[in-house]
Amino acid sequence: MPPTRKNIRKRLGKNKRKTIKRKTIKRKSTIKILKNFPGGNISIISKKMDKTKCLINLKIKNEPYKHNVKKKFQNWFYFKSCNIKDKQIKYTIRDVNNYDDDWKGFNVCYSYDNINWKRSPTKFVKKVNNVNKANIEWDFKAKEDQVWFAYYPPYPFKRVQKLFGKSKIIGRSEKGRPIYMKKVGWGEKKVWIICGQHPGETINSWILEGFMEKLMERNQEKYTFYIIPCLNPDGREMGHWYTNAKGVNLNRDWSDFKAKEPQCVKKQFLKYGFDLVIDLHGDEGVNHHFLAHSPKKKHPLHGKINERLNMKNKNFQLENYYIKNGHAQTLANTLDEYTVGITVEGAMKHKIGKHKTLQEEGIQLGRDLFDSL
Questions:
Q1: CATH number at residue 288
Q2: Is residue 203 within a helix (H) or strand (E), and if so which, with residue range?
Q3: CA 336 – CA 305 distance, rounded (Å)
Q4: Do residues 343 and 305 make contact, with C-beta atoms less than 8 angstroms apart?
Q5: What is the pLDDT of residues 295-351, one digit of tens each?
Q6: pLDDT tens-digit map of 76-86
Q7: Residue 194 CA to chain centroid, in angstroms?
Q8: Which of 31, 185, 289, 314 might form a disulfide with 224, Cβ 3.0–4.6 angstroms?
Q9: End-to-end CA distance of the chain
């Protein structure tokens, strides 16, 4: 029987349906590790399967520290793991620099939406042949197809720009990013809040957010506040823990002023003056928030603010962790020494407690700091 148009259409239809069916065949998704976003920092060493789980070995990327720096801190990491739903995975960050056992007691932060952050139990494995090296390990079976991991809830520079983008630009970073200054109030006493010298200590920005929340609620007749929301935008964007784009630890540059970032703040200090300078930081070793100061001299308000914070915040300790552990020299050549100021150190290993998300503890500390002035 010769082919007719109707038969040809039927045959073509059958072939078409077969083609469509072949295209919809599902394939197993490969696990991916991504860090190509602001603040991302991790390198993949290897991925392999054993009998029960996938083993992913990672490494924190090095920062451009100067050659003469002895302690090259290496804490900040931030990455996204994809195609992982219901898969048992063991993540290992290998050979991290471990000073004073600061990694001991650390639990990794994770989030399914990059907004709400919690902690997952993490194992600290110290190197036998090198006390300054350790591995950080955690097992994770995701309930969703993607999850973010970080040392602490990130605070991208875009969030800074959203909150402070209409503020005065007092200078530019080494990479040309803006350094903002916001002036609030008209009081006689001049109080400066400096945030983000160490970019990986992201709790500093969450503290500032809580502080600003309280500050904007009230008329300021007693104080004039000068707010520097992010002094190291390059480090924040590049995923650094301590340094700027050129490897300078900005909080050790307040005597030499080699970096552009402290230079522009110094000009504003000379222009407006100051009565109190508060420097916001985060600490990787301590379990409770605390205040630090220059080993040479305390600000007259240090004791009063310290006591008030201790009364307001149950996670705040009166003792200066640095002095107690023989690290007073860590505040040499710092902003505290230059201004006889006060450093607020947020404890970055704090538990989530009753909070919905981890960063709410930093926000609460900022509110309590404002109420303690």
A1: 3.40.630.10
A2: helix 203-215
A3: 15
A4: no
A5: 889 999 999 999 999 999 999 999 999 887 777 666 678 999 999 999 999 999 999
A6: 999 999 999 99
A7: 16
A8: 185
A9: 98
Considering the domain architecture, whether residues 102 and 194 belong to the same structural domain is answered as: no
Does residue 183 sit in the same domain as residue 294? yes
C-alpha distances out from residue 373 to 130, 217, 370, Å: 45, 15, 6
In whole angstroms, give the CA distance from residue 138 to residue 18: 45
92 class by beta-carbon count within 10 Å (0-12 exposed, 13-18 middle, 19+ buried): middle
282 plus 184 within the same structural domain: yes
Query: 290 and 341 share a domain?
Result: yes
User: Are 204 and 82 in a shared domain?
Assistant: no
d(CA 265, CA 338): 12
Q: CA-CA distance, 234 to 243, in Å (whole number)? A: 9
Could you list the beta-strand ranges (E) of the chain. 32-34, 43-49, 54-59, 78-82, 88-97, 108-111, 118-120, 123-126, 133-141, 146-150, 168-172, 178-185, 189-195, 223-228, 276-283, 290-292, 342-347
Residue 223 structural domain: 157-372
Taking a C-beta distance cutoff of 8 angstroms, is the pair 335, 251 a contact?
yes
In a domain, 244, yes or no: yes
